[in-house]
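lol ok so funny story. i was supposed to be doing the assay writeup but got distracted and ended up predicting the structure for this chain instead. priorities right. anyway since i did it might as well share w the group, maybe its usefull for someone
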Amino acid sequence: MEKRDRGAAVCLGFFDGVHLGHRALLSAAREIARREGLSVCAHTFDVPPGGKGAPLTTLEERIALLREAGADTVAVSPFDDGMRRMPGDEFFRRIVLGELNARHVICGDDHRFGYRGAWGAEELRALCREAGIGLTVVPPVTLPDGSRISTTALRAALQAGEFARAEEMLGRPVPDALRHRFPSAEMLNKCRNYCLTPRKRVKYNSANRI
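and the output, tada:
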């Protein structure tokens, strides 16, 4: 029997930016899938569920990055009015169990789902227990200074022109396409680098005068 017929280890989230926190979910899913003979599926939406501005990555970029991070398949649900109003338990039954054939679910500790994000990890735990499938809640991934890696923190770093910090969160260089979405921040970053670069002092004497 092929892995996809046995079910999937399903990662839940929007995965904007596909940073190290997201990659930790995929890493956990790969290990579970290897142990239980499952495929790895990442579930996302076509647009941000919260409707908070433009995402950091396009849908095409997200799919490519999730596959590169270890997803065998990337399932994309349209976040239309029906999906927006869907209660968490219905989302679990129709999408997670029905469409994705989940046998194990992986999410972050702050994951929210269902109408107005009213459902979280504890409610998901109860649903998985009732359905007889596994659940793994992945703890937050932090930077060396203890800051939590999140899409919100990543966006804040990009807006501030702190591209080195953003790269720590991504675990890879900030692509030019993403830098260009924050032109003011890119200019600020270049100015900061210029100002911090030691300059050669010129000693003036009479020969330098005009």
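The chain has a mean pLDDT of 89. The longest strand covers residues 39-45.
back to the writeup now i swear
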